[in-house]
Amino acid sequence: MSHYRNYGSPAQADAGRPFFALMKAWAAGLVVLLLASYLQSAYFYGSFATAEKLESFSNVLWLIHLPNAVCIALTVWVSARVHAEPHRDSTVQHMSAAFAVPVAGQIVAFALSAGLPWRNLGVVSVLMSVAVLVVGCVAGYAAERLREQD
Predict the structure, then answer these.
(1) Which residues contact 11 (CB under 8 A, 6 or more apart)?
(2) What are the φ/ψ torsions at residue 36 (nearest 5 degrees)?
(3) Which of 17, 25, 89, 116 lies 20 to 30 Å from 57 when distance is taken between CA atoms?
(4) What are the distances in angstroms from CA 142 to CA 80, 128, 146?
(5) What percent of the chain has pLDDT over 90?
(6) What does pLDDT average to over the chain?
């Protein structure tokens, strides 16, 4: 006797496994977040975000926070697109699939940077990072919803 069910189609097979659908979305989001963050820090920051340019708030906004929001939006969009179809109808599951990786990434970034002596985590820095997280999440989720409507 087989322990596997015959579901008939991949969509029907995913219908019985909501946790695995979440795991697949989180894995895709994690890959995108790591790749985008690596490309951002390795190529973008080294070329454009020099110490002289980061003295004004507007340059920090354009050179640090805007690229971070784009990385977060891309992560949310990919995570939400990979999330399996039968589970998208559940708002809680779909939002968990979309937002878990960027929120966890932000928590890890705060935890890792808090112990660094040269990293000053002031209130303004934390609030800007949270605002960037919210803007990126909203933009990525809106892009996914617009794509789904087409």
Answers:
(1) 84, 85, 86
(2) -65, -40
(3) 116
(4) 10, 21, 6
(5) 42
(6) 82
Of the candidates 122, 144, 125, the one whose C-alpha atom is nearest the C-alpha of residue 133 is 125
Q: Is the pLDDT of residue 78 over 90?
A: yes
Contacts of 127 (CB under 8 A, 6+ apart): none
Q: Which pTM value belongs to this model?
A: 0.81
Q: In angstroms, how far is the first alpha carbon of the chain from the final one?
A: 44
- Determine the distance from the C-alpha atom of residue 132 to the mean position of all C-alpha atoms in its chain, rounded to a whole number: 11
Distance (Å, whole) CA 99 – CA 101: 6
Q: What are phi and psi of 4, to 5 degrees?
A: -100, 140
How does DSSP assign the chain, residue by residue?
--SS---SSHHHHHHT-HHHHHHHHHHHHHHHHHHHHHHIIIIIHHHH--TTGGGSHHHHIIIIIHHHHHHHHHHHHHHHHHS-GGGTTSHHHHHHHHHHHHHHHHHHHHHHHHT-TT----HHHHHHHHHHHHHHHHHHHHHHHHHHH-
Mean predicted confidence (pLDDT) in 35-62? 78
